[in-house]
Amino acid sequence: VAQRKASVSSKGTGILVFLGVVEGDKVKKGQIIARLDDRDIVAQLDEAKSSLQLYKAQMNEVENNYNREKELFNRGLSSQQSLDQAETAYKSLLANIDMADARIRAAEVALENMIIRAPFDGTVLTKNAEVGEIVAPFGASTTSRAAVVTIADMNSLMVETDVSESNIEKIKQDTDCEIVLDSNPGKSYQGYVFKIVPTADRSKATVLVKVGFKSYDNRVLPEMSAKVSFLS
């Protein structure tokens, strides 16, 4: 069993338009695995950027008018109402600029959420979605997929084996083991007790023990059946 395994999904919801991996492909952390349709978000980002440019273009005139009204008011040549109006226009424009900035940041985050990246170095085990399907971040339904691919760190493979409660006291941390795959009974791998999980399965009267490999080759794959012999 791969101790590091993930069903990779997106933070956004949309139609899958690109899937760049298939089963067996190796991926690096941060690598783009897939993309969702982001055209509406790109449009929102462009609109927010245009609004920001417009507000900034207006800033020079509005700020100069406010400063001019302050000077005239201090010299007694303008009314309080005119000053208040100029100040309101200036502060409103500053607020609009801040709002446009926030919209740009929100759109950029949403755009990044439409990109699905590998969370760690690993190998693609299964492909769970196809281009054209809807991908949603919280659970699959009849019309959408939750995960796009499932990946595993092949360097984290261990054997999970049940040991009877009556024999668990004989098993110690780091005890040497011999591992034999059912698919290749003529080959054995050296292992060790990595962890004794501190809880029992009441229905089977067993305790789960995780056995690590000291070394293994590419014939060892996730979900294979194996037998473990604990060496004294």
Layout of helices and strands:
Layout: E1 5-8, E2 14-19, E3 26-27, E4 32-36, H1 39-74, H2 80-113, E5 115-117, E6 122-127, E7 134-135, E8 144-145, E9 149-152, E10 158-164, E11 176-181, E12 188-201, E13 206-213, E14 226-230
Parallel strand pairs: 7-8
Antiparallel strand pairs: 1-9, 2-4, 2-7, 3-6, 4-5, 6-9, 10-13, 11-12, 11-14, 12-13
3D structure, described in words:
The protein is α+β, with helices and mostly antiparallel strands and 232 residues long. It has 2 helices and 14 strands. The strands form 3 sheets. The chain has a 5-stranded mixed sheet. Strands 10-13-12-11-14 form a 5-stranded antiparallel sheet, with no helix packed on it. A hairpin with a 6-residue loop joins strand 11 and strand 12. Helix 1 packs antiparallel against helix 2. The mean pLDDT is 92.
Helix proportion:
25-40%
Mean of residue pLDDT? Answer: 92
- How much of the sequence is in beta strands? 25-35%
The geometry reads as elongated
Count of DSSP E strands?
14
Which descriptors apply to this entry?
alpha+beta; elongated; 2 helices; 14 strands; 32% strand; 232 residues; five-stranded mixed beta sheet; five-stranded antiparallel beta sheet
Describe this structure in a few short sentences.
The chain has 232 residues and is of the alpha+beta class.
